[in-house]
Amino acid sequence: MGSLDIAGFEAAARARLADDVWGYIQGGSGSESALRANREALERLRVRPRFLVDVSACDPSTSVLGLPLATPLGIAPMAYHRLAHPEGEVATAEAAGASGTLLTVSMFASRTLEDIAAAAAGSPLWLQLYWLRERAAVVELADRAAAAGFSALVLTVDAPKVARRPRDSRSGFTVPEGIGAVNLPSSLTASAHRHSEGASSIERHSREQFDPGITWADLAWLRERTSLPLLIKGILTAEDAELAVAHGASGVVVSNHGGRQLDCAVASADALPEIVDAVGGRCPVVVDGGIRHGSDVLKVLALGADLALIGRPVLWGLAQGGAAGVAELLELLRAELTEAMVLSGCPLTSDINRSFITAG
Ligand SMILES: Cc1cc2nc3c(=O)[nH]c(=O)nc-3n(C[C@H](O)[C@H](O)[C@H](O)COP(=O)(O)O)c2cc1C
Ligand SMILES: CC(C)CC(=O)C(=O)O
């Protein structure tokens, strides 16, 4: 505990987690070039600070889709938090709830939606979905989320199948028995637990269960079956952002899945400006990928994002200390963001705009 920067959380988690779990969490697809590109794109961006602005009161709060948020930083959907800590998503939700941080729960969460909602204590929750061949299971989950007080759905579209991820193939990564996607019927999750030497069970499971045949035209089917707003996650082009809005999406998540899907995909911070130019102002633009410091949040807000999501570091915090570890991580990022706003002359998140950014 008491890490001064995010590297301390990463090191603590590495020391606690088994090699195959660490490889699954940290890894990317292929040569991991999209994973590296996310960080490189953010590092390339530099801030143009302005001075002699009154920053004696700095407030990083914001709101997205009518939800008041303590900071413009939320938690990205990640499967199986119990891989990192026995309490899993309930611990994450406790920390998110205590600080008013948005938590996006994965369809492959390892704790029930209802237990997660109870732990979040009224703080905002979104539910992420993949489009399964078994459509009834998707709709049932959306209904349960609405009943449990979740306020939006996030459909991930960048994974017609899980990509080849060499670290997982090498380790034969298999979701351990005892940690499961407990919100889905066991008939749909069994193969994620079946081990084969030299192959990823998650990749095989996705080939069996994900529907690679869906198109934009199918979105209407889902929207007709839920009253919750639907965001589309995995958008990397202005064209797809326009299509998402044209098909009734309430928001887009600019993401290359943390470098875990198309290995040669554009970095999310590089894709962001064209997407903001296309649909910004018409719907919230959320972004994730490589956010590792509060100043990274300032940078993507300057490019026009409304909200940044953080992925892997949340699992590092969870592995380090359960709810307390996640709370400490969120507090570090909030403090870093507030300092970056003070030092660059932006007392409010609404003050942050493109004039604050330059590409190196
Ligand atoms: C271990 C792990 C599991 C993930 N599971 C999901 C998931 O279930 N659904 C999803 O849409 N994205 C999933 N993602 C992708 C994240 O939502 C997010 O796009 C990415 O991790 C953000 O990048 P970052 O980890 O660099 O912050 C997962 C990522 C990781 C690292
Ligand atoms: C279970 C997987 C489909 C979760 C995921 O999206 C990922 O590992 O990137």
Automatic annotation (TrEMBL):
Belongs to the FMN-dependent alpha-hydroxy acid dehydrogenase family. Its cofactor is FMN. The keyword Ubl conjugation does not apply. Residues 1-360 form the FMN hydroxy acid dehydrogenase domain. InterPro entries: Aldolase_TIM, Alpha-hydoxy_acid_DH_FMN, FMN-dep_DH, FMN_HAD, FMN_hydac_DH_AS. Gene3D superfamilies: Aldolase class I. CDD domains: alpha_hydroxyacid_oxid_FMN (cd02809). Keywords: Flavoprotein, FMN, Oxidoreductase. It comes from Kitasatospora kazusensis. Pfam families: FMN_dh. The keyword Oxidoreductase applies. It comes from the Bacteria. This is Alpha-hydroxy acid oxidase.
